[in-house]
Design goal:
Elements: H1 15-28, H2 31-49
Length: 59
């Protein structure tokens, strides 16, 4: 029988409530705010699409 005495248990997050809160906030925003959010996401998509990841090997 294995004992798990050293494991830290995190409290369970209430994902459903967090999702509902985000949805309420999004639905309460105006059309102008939604438009600005969408254009920001579109700009970010364009920037990330053309991004080039460069890395060097670590010794």
């Amino acid at each position: 029988m294995k004992s798990k005495t050293n494991i830290v248990e995190e409290p369970l997050a209430d994902y459903k409530k967090a999702e509902e809160d985000l949805l309420r906030k999004a639905l309460s925003s105006s059309y102008t705010e939604r438009f600005h959010t969408m254009t920001r996401l579109m700009k970010m998509n364009i920037i990330l699409k053309s991004a080039k990841v460069i890395h060097k090997k670590m010794d």
